[in-house]
C-alpha cells in the first residue's frame, strides 16, 4: 500500500440549484491530524462523501494513496470512516453490528471484540443499539472505522454528542493514530477543539477552499496583529507615552487599554519611564476562531 | 461474493425479523391448510346433482367443471401448496426489508464503505432473498406434506404425491417464493421508504388480483374479445396463481407456463431496475 495521502483535485458537486462543492482542491498528509473546517452548509460532508465514493462528483477526483476509493482492493483495510453516529440497526447488538461489517469486508469475527476493547465498549458489546447513549454510538462508530486497522481515517464531526471526558479521550486517540504515521482527516465546527487537536487545517466556505496549511501558519498569516491589554490607574499618562512611541491605543469597554503596534516589553519599559503602575499586561494573539471568522465572514450565507 | 452473502444473512439473523416472519408464515400456513383440507373434504365427498330440465350442452359444461374441481389431484395440489399466498407475501416483504433497512437505520453508508461496488451488494441481497425464500418454502411444504399425507389417508383417498401434476405444483411453488423475494428486493430499491414499500407491495399483492378482475371485466364490456380477459396474466399476483393452478383459474386463462414466464420477466425487471437505481443513487 502506498503512503495514504489524500488528494482532492477539482472536486465539484452540483445539485439542482446549489453548487455544494465548487472546484475544491487540497491534500491531506499522512502522520498528521488535519482539521477540515467550514461553516454549516459549506460542503464538508458532501466532500467527505465524495472522497468515499458515496456521492458521485459532478467533476474532479479524489484519491487515497493514489487510488480512487472504489478502486481500493480492500477498502476497509485502507480507510476507516465515521460519517454519522446513529447508524446501526436499533435491534442489533453492538458486537453483531461490527460482525456484519467484518463479514462483508472479509475480516475475522474476533476483530469485532478487539475494536470494542479499543474504544472501551466491551461491557456493552451484547447490548442492543437502541440502548446506546450518543457517546457510546460515537465510540461504536470509531470501533467500526478501526476494524480493518486502516492507514487513513476520515471522521465527520466525531466530537458531536461527546461529553468533555469523551472529547478528551477522542483527542488523545486521534493524536495517537497520527503519531503512528496514519492520515487523520477530521471535520468539525468546534474551533477551540481543532486548535488543540489539528496540525494542519483546510478551511472551506460556500464549497470553495479558503485557506490550507499548518495551524500556526494559517493563524500567523492573518492581518490581525497581536494586541496587548494594559490596565493602569494612570491611563492618560501611559497613553500619551505609548502614542509617542508609535503605538495605537484604544480603550476597551472595561476601561483597559488595547495597544497595537508595540510589544509587551516596550510597554513595560514605557510604563517604567513615566512611573505608571501596571495592574495587567497581557498579549492577546488571534486564535483559530478569530482567523476562521475573519476568513469565512460573509461567505457563510444560506445557499 | 460469498462474504457479502454471509454478511447479508447475518444482517437478518441478528434481528427479530426472521423469526417473526417465520412464525407468521407457519401460522398462516396452518390456517390455509385447515381451510384447504375442509374444502377438499367437502368436494371429495360431494355428489353432482344437476337439475333435470338443464339443456344438454350446459349440463355437459357443468359436469366438466364439477369433474375438474372434484378430482383428487386438484385437491391434492391445493393442500400441498397451502400457505403459498401468505408465504410469497412474507418473502416479498423480507426482500423489501433487505434494502429499506439500510436506509431506515442508515446502515447503507457502512455497507457501501465495505463494498464500493454496489451491483455486488444487490446481487448478494438477491441471492440472500432467494435463499430465505427457499427456507420459507421448505418450512411451509414440510408442514403441508405431513398434514396432507395424514389427511388423505384419513379421508381414504390417494394423496397423488407421485403425480407429476402435484410435484410440479410443489416445485413451481418454490419458484413463486423465489420470484416474490426478488420482487421485494427490486421494490425496496424503487421505494426507499420502509413503510411506503411495504404498504405498496401488500396492497398490490392482496387486492391486485381482485382489482385486475374488475378492471379487465370492465374492459371486456368495451372490447368483447376473450383475449382481453386472458391479458389479466400481466398482473403479477394473477400470474402467480395461474402458474400454480393445474386447472384453468378462469375460463380464458392462459396455460401455466405463460404465468411462469410473466412472473420470471417481472422478477428480472425488478432486479435490474433495483440494481440500476442503487448504483446511481447518492448516499447522504
UniProtKB/TrEMBL annotation, chain A:
The record's Pfam families line, in alphabetical order, gives: ABC_tran (PF00005)
Where in the sequence is the signal peptide annotated?
Answer: none
Q: Which residues cross the membrane?
A: none
Q: Which InterPro entries does the record associate with it?
A: AAA+_ATPase, ABC_transporter-like_ATP-bd, ABC_transporter-like_CS, P-loop_NTPase
A GO molecular-function descriptor: ATP binding
Ranges for domain ABC transporter: 6-231
SMART domains referenced in this protein's UniProt entry, alphabetically: AAA
Keyword line: ATP-binding, Nucleotide-binding, Transport
Protein family: Belongs to the ABC transporter superfamily.
Return the protein name.
ABC transporter ATP-binding protein
UniProtKB/TrEMBL annotation, chain B:
Pfam families (UniProt xref): ABC2_membrane_2
Specify whether Transmembrane is a keyword of the entry. yes
PANTHER family recorded: INTEGRAL MEMBRANE PROTEIN-RELATED (PTHR37305), MEMBRANE PROTEIN (PTHR37305:SF1)
Repeat recorded as keyword = no
Bilayer-crossing residues are: 20-44, 84-105, 126-151, 171-191, 203-223, 257-278
Name it: ABC transporter permease subunit
Keyword annotations from UniProtKB, A to Z: Membrane, Transmembrane, Transmembrane helix
Amino acid at each position: 500500500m502506498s503512503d495514504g495521502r489524500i488528494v482532492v483535485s477539482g472536486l465539484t458537486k452540483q445539485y439542482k440549484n446549489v453548487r455544494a462543492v465548487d472546484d475544491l482542491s487540497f491534500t491531506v498528509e499522512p502522520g498528521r491530524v488535519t482539521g477540515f473546517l467550514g461553516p454549516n452548509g459549506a460542503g464538508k460532508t458532501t466532500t467527505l462523501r465524495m472522497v468515499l465514493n458515496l456521492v458521485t462528483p459532478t467533476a474532479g477526483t479524489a484519491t487515497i494513496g493514489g487510488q480512487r476509493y472504489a478502486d481500493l482492493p480492500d477498502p476497509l483495510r485502507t480507510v476507516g470512516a465515521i460519517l454519522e453516529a446513529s447508524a446501526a440497526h436499533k435491534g442489533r447488538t453492538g458486537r453483531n453490528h461490527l460482525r456484519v461489517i467484518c463479514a462483508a469486508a472479509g475480516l475475522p469475527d474476533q476483530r469485532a471484540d478487539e475494536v470494542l476493547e479499543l474504544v472501551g465498549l466491551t461491557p456493552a458489546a451484547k447490548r442492543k443499539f437502541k440502548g446506546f447513549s450518543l457517546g457510546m454510538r460515537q465510540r461504536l462508530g470509531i470501533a467500526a472505522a478501526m476494524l480493518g486497522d486502516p492507514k487513513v481515517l476520515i471522521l465527520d464531526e466525531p466530537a458531536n454528542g461527546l461529553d468533555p471526558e469523551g472529547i478528551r479521550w477522542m483527542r488523545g486517540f486521534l493524536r495517537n493514530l497520527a503519531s503512528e504515521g496514519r492520515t487523520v482527516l477530521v471535520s468539525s465546527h468546534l474551533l477551540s477543539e481543532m486548535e488543540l487537536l489539528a496540525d494542519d487545517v483546510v478551511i472551506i466556505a460556500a464549497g470553495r477552499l479558503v485557506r490550507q496549511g499548518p495551524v500556526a501558519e494559517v493563524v500567523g498569516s492573518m492581518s490581525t496583529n497581536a494586541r496587548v491589554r494594559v490596565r493602569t490607574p494612570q491611563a492618560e499618562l501611559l497613553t500619551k507615552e505609548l502614542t509617542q512611541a508609535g503605538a495605537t491605543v484604544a480603550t476597551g469597554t472595561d476601561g483597559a487599554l488595547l495597544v497595537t503596534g508595540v510589544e509587551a516589553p516596550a510597554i513595560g519599559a514605557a510604563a517604567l519611564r513615566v512611573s505608571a503602575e501596571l495592574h495587567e499586561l497581557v498579549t492577546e494573539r488571534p486564535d483559530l476562531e478569530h482567523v476562521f471568522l475573519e476568513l469565512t465572514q460573509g461567505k457563510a450565507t444560506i445557499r | 461474493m460469498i462474504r457479502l452473502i454471509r454478511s447479508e444473512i447475518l444482517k437478518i439473523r441478528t434481528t427479530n425479523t426472521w423469526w417473526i416472519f417465520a412464525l407468521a408464515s407457519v401460522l398462516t400456513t396452518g390456517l390455509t391448510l385447515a381451510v384447504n383440507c375442509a374444502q377438499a373434504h367437502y368436494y371429495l365427498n360431494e355428489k353432482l346433482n344437476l337439475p333435470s330440465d338443464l339443456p344438454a350442452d350446459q349440463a355437459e359444461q357443468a359436469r366438466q367443471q364439477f369433474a375438474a374441481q372434484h378430482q383428487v389431484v386438484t385437491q391434492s395440489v391445493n393442500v400441498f401448496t397451502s400457505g403459498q399466498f401468505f408465504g410469497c407475501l412474507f418473502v416479498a416483504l423480507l426482500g423489501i426489508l433487505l434494502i429499506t433497512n439500510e436506509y431506515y437505520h442508515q446502515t447503507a453508508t457502512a455497507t457501501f464503505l465495505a463494498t464500493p461496488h454496489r451491483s455486488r451488494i444487490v446481487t448478494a441481497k438477491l441471492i440472500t432473498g432467494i435463499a430465505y425464500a427457499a427456507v420459507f418454502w421448505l418450512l411451509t411444504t414440510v408442514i403441508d406434506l405431513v398434514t396432507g399425507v395424514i389427511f388423505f389417508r384419513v379421508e381414504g383417498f390417494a394423496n397423488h404425491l407421485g403425480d407429476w401434476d402435484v410435484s410440479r405444483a410443489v416445485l413451481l411453488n418454490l419458484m413463486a417464493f423465489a420470484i416474490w423475494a426478488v420482487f421485494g428486493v427490486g421494490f425496496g430499491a424503487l421505494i426507499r421508504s420502509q413503510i411506503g414499500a411495504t404498504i405498496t407491495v401488500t396492497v398490490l399483492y392482496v387486492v391486485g388480483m381482485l382489482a385486475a378482475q374488475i378492471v379487465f371485466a370492465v374492459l371486456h364490456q368495451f372490447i368483447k374479445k376473450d383475449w382481453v380477459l386472458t391479458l389479466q396474466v400481466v398482473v403479477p399476483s394473477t400470474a402467480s396463481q395461474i402458474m400454480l393452478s393445474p386447472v384453468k383459474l378462469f375460463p380464458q386463462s392462459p396455460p401455466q407456463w405463460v404465468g411462469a414466464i410473466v412472473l420470471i420477466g417481472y422478477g428480472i425487471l425488478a432486479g435490474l431496475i433495483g440494481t440500476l437505481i442503487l448504483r446511481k443513487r447518492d448516499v447522504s
